[in-house]
């Protein structure tokens, strides 16, 4: 009997354009246009958060892809128009525009898509079920949806398809009402990850594994967005990541791919903590 396969652990940062990183994580004199390239030299993934605030353009996605290695993965933060304004309701047109904005230009480097919900968004089984039902399951489905974009994207849409592949989704609720067996059932049914978020106690932490992917966001253990992680805290996270990836930390024993993003960037800690955690995981796994 062969041993269970250890899945992949990808550790990176949320965003990369931060003034406090310049002359610190980014070498002094490094041009801003090469900052993502520098990220790609140190980490296998990044969480793209500009897509949360506005629809990006195909040329941007294509440029970002050209600046990193071929095996690099982009997690995409879903539009706040969908999560915070429409609040997951009547989202078909907004989703069409989102997927037409250039996401498909990432091709095989498209990683999970994150939907961060506002704290005021309480768990509603019907709303969550309907929203997850509306999401395209593959890039082929996303292409078909993108073709229905409205006139706002005329002349700036990307609907070409490089390959048909599954799309993975992660949901980050910030309301305690999602601590509900029915919420877990719905997420599991749709294969969507329930984000494990460390928020210095500001929002609830959910630890249930609801898909084949574990999505972790580390916003700071002591001070939201500001505090660095201690050696002991990173050591504890390394144990968890390795257990999820080899299956020993999952109730069903199945290995899971793990994506981890540090968002404690206010004082420049994120890339240093990500590098330290990456080294700890590599030492444990021999990779």
What can you tell me about this protein's structure?
With 287 residues, this protein is α/β, with parallel strands linked by helices. The protein has a single domain, classed as Protein of unknown function UPF0759 (TIM Barrel), CATH 3.20.20.410. Helices cover 33% and strands 15% of the residues. It contains ten helices and nine strands. A nine-stranded parallel sheet has the order 6-5-4-3-2-1-9-8-7. α1 links the parallel β1 (9-14) and β2 (45-48). It is globular. The chain starts with 8 loop residues before the first strand and ends with a helix. Mean pLDDT is 96; it is low at 1-5.
What are its keywords?
287 residues; alpha/beta; TIM Barrel; 9-stranded parallel sheet; 10 helices; 33% helix; 15% strand
Top CATH class: Alpha Beta
Number of domains: 1
How large is the radius of gyration?
18 Å
Strand order of the largest sheet: 6-5-4-3-2-1-9-8-7
Q: How does the overall form come out from the CA principal axes?
A: globular
Tell me the CATH superfamily. Protein of unknown function UPF0759
Q: Give the strand tally.
A: 9
Q: Determine the mean pLDDT.
A: 96
Helix count, DSSP H or I runs of 4 or more residues: 10
- Helix fraction bin: 25-40%
What letter string, H or E per element, gives the SSE order?
A: EHEHHEHHEHHEHEEEHEH
Q: What about the largest sheet?
A: 9 strands, parallel
The proportion of residues in beta strands is 5-15%
Structural class label:
alpha/beta
Flag low-confidence runs. Answer: 1-5
Q: Identify the CATH architecture.
A: Alpha-Beta Barrel
- CATH topology title: TIM Barrel
Q: Termini separation (Å)? A: 23 Å
